[in-house]
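Response to reviewer comment R2.3. The reviewers asked that we include at least one raw input/output pair. We reproduce the pair for Uroporphyrinogen decarboxylase here without editing.
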Amino acid sequence: MSQLMKQFRDEMTPLERAIALSKGQDVDRIQCNPNLSNGIARVSGCKISEFNTSSKALAQAVIDTHRAFGGDGAKIFTDLFILSEAMGAKMKYPDDNTVDLLEPAITSVDEIKNLEPVNPCRDARLPIHIEAMSIVQNEIGKEVPCTALIVGPFTSAFFLIGVQKMTKLLITNPEAVHELCKISLESCKRFASAAIETGVGISIAEPMSSCTVISPKHFREFGKPYIKEFVDFLKAKGVGSSIHICGKTNGIFDDIVEVGVGGFSIDNVVDLSECIDKIGSKIKITGNVDPSTIMYSGTREEVRKSVIQCVKKGYKSPKGFGVMSGCGLPVETPIINIHTMMDTAREIGWPITDEKLDKLMSMSLYE
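Raw output as returned:
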């Protein structure tokens, strides 16, 4: 067996590592989170559809995933439509794949007045998620930072009336967009409040805020104010937050800092070096290993080298850097590639130097 194929072991729990880094202390390795989404079902051996009816199945899959890989976060999340569904949107429920939007909650702006903010204890699948959060936090919360991934107010507003209609409203009816965002924001606050009661932290998903979807101008006018209010609401409750935005975000780097989140997870299409040069002194950056070409389709060698390359670009970032996939991993991502991602972070260890990374890059996994 080669030196590189030996078993690497963590010397700290993810929570111990996070606390030490926050104090500027040495750790055993760089933070690494493969960012599994519904692929946790494959780890746990259940169907994805079980997450829609069983808090125990969802929680156990999160717990099993943490214990399988030892990543630096445990995330309770299933799909982008939890809040919009609770406000009246209709869903497609595949037997063993991710829930998708079937119909938005309303079909016209005239129906906005009929929308009501969610009740997390009653509406749709929200109680299932809240109960799962409680189970996960009680079971592994002393080992790893546990978070609820909440779809943010701007993105959730899109699913209330439909993506195409909302995109047109950005231009034709700004007032309606603001009304949708306001009610979506209130739902985010209510869901987050219930989540915080379980002891978990909060992460925010805002895919519709991407510069790939809307212009930076529209983000500043419609997305940013409501995301900032949500983040301020969380801070008032003593909870920090991070945000992930899919696609290109270079046009809104400074805006992400200004909304007040503590961490920014970037897509693989974003230039990591550019992001760090622009805002790395103001916010922690995580990312941005390609979830599809590398993690899903790549070889172990390609995964390892991609992780090393990301670390080389990111580890000097002033506010910190953590390795993640650039978005949630595809469901069928090979388990061995996820292990390889984690083991590469362990192989890199601590402290990190360019010379060490160059040496590791020159070596093959199979030497």
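The longest strand covers residues 146-151. The two ends are 9 Å apart (CA to CA). Further pairs are available on request from the corresponding author.
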